[in-house]
Amino acid sequence: MDINCGNSSYEDNRTAEAKFRDASIILGILLSGVGVWVIIYALWEHLGRPVPVSYMVQAVDLLGIAMCLTAWRFTSFSVKELGLFPENPKKVAIETLILCGISFVILATIKFVGQMYDPTLFQTERGFFDIRRFNLYQIFYLFTAFIQEFTARSIMQTNLRRVCATRHKTMYAIVHASVVFAVFHIEYGFWFMIGAAFLGGLLGVVYEKQKTVLGVWIIHWFLGVAAFLFGIINQ
């Protein structure tokens, strides 16, 4: 009898059991998180939106932290799989700066074309790009963007890819993480959710390419701040 073969089979079974266990836990976390947030949103609407959207953003951040801590405590992914430490920081930094530049041009084009159609669209207090809108909230948004991306990429997308048994597991993970990401923006309305899902898909692809959450975190923050300074979003 080949002892090594027996050991290998045992290890394979242990790995399969661990992945199945992780899959069950992640599914439970995702379903519970989405369910809790939909209930909170429904209550917010039922009460006539008693608090501003910014409070809802803080609430979903707290929910994201709770989901991250739960996944960290009860699943078996390693620190390396969290994507906090890029293998090639310089390459990630260059790619992130390029993508931020492209994003800025796209946002400027959206505003320019939108105002050609309707001059009152995307108005700011001062000019085409109102840098004076930048405030402490935009700095705090660094934390918000990190929590959202860490939850969507390091926790959801990474674990969905690890436990998925389908052929196209990476695409499966990106799509499902993006849909959940969109649901957590329900307080902004339908079209914002569609935009969040689309952005989530693009950031999911970047995350898979860079293998780190740092790049998508900065892109997410930059897009949110730039869109606010352009007046494309006003919350």
UniProtKB/TrEMBL annotation:
Residue spans crossing the bilayer:
23-43, 55-72, 92-114, 134-152, 173-194, 214-233
Q: Read off the InterPro entries from this record.
A: Rce1/LyrA-like_dom (IPR003675)
- GO molecular function terms noted in the UniProt entry: endopeptidase activity
Q: Where is the CAAX prenyl protease 2/Lysostaphin resistance protein A-like domain?
A: 139-223
Q: Which domain of life is it from?
A: Bacteria
Keywords annotated in UniProt: Hydrolase, Membrane, Protease, Transmembrane, Transmembrane helix
Q: Which GO terms describe its biological process?
A: CAAX-box protein maturation; proteolysis
- What is the protein name for this chain? CAAX protease self-immunity
- Look up and give the organism this protein is from: Pseudobutyrivibrio xylanivorans
What lineage is on file? Bacteria, Bacillati, Bacillota, Clostridia, Lachnospirales
